[in-house]
Amino acid sequence: MLPALFLSHGAPSLALSQAPAAAFLRTLPALLPERPKAILVVSAHWETPRPRISVVAKNSTIHDFRGFPPALYQLRYDAPGAPDIAQRAAKLLADAGLEPELDPTRGLDHGAWAPLLLAWPQADIPVFQISLQTARGPAHHLALGRALAPLRNEGVLIVGSGSWTHDLSSFRGQAENAPEPDWVLRFADWADAALTEHRTEDLLQYRTRAPEAVSNHPTEEHFLPIFVALGAGSETNVRRLHRSTTFGIIHMDAYAIGA
User: Fold this and answer.
1) Under a CB-based contact definition with an 8 Å cutoff, are residues 77 and 108 in contact?
2) Could you give the number of structural domains in the chain?
3) Are strands 250-251 and 245-246 parallel, antiparallel or unpaired?
4) pTM of full prediction above 0.90
5) Three-class DSSP category at 256
6) What is the C-alpha separation between 242 and 178, in angstroms, rounded?
């Protein structure tokens, strides 16, 4: 069975980077027990009031950012969609009372295509996305992941794509290899311990229990994907796959759950 994954996708420019996190993502297929039949991505960059599921036959590439090098806007990741599996995911969410909606036009945002471009550059594995409901918090996303867990038995790789730390107010002007400050390290270490020690309740309450939580995540959307991966992975057998930082304040940690 495939694990569920949490991947830190970092800045959009990761797709053109030689940073350690980019090198790690290029090795990701070799770390999995089998090639996925399809990939489901829950990205920090798609937020809706209710769960929305993309059901396109072919994905377009969304360049949902500004101010980056022109070469980045030339990148495309036009992977096939997975409308049949997306319909199956919709039924799982509906059976769990999560009231999903289908989206027939949504392409792939950079939270999906940037890491996938590094891991599977051929763009030949079907991909679909499910949106976040940021206002509904961690427990909702844990339940979302639990509802989607049966897809792992069907060859679907479930990926929560966010960022282990994500304070963009400190991002501009930082070198990609800048050292991390102590306030970033304290949160990253706490979150790693809570996850790997299976302290799910602490994670659910991370905004009040973790050191520097609000400083590292002024808004929640980049941390919520870990709860989807945690629920989909049945909260067991957590393994850290990668740890590094970019621009000092963006921790690029990645985890396999339920491997």
Assistant:
1) yes
2) 1
3) antiparallel
4) yes
5) strand
6) 18
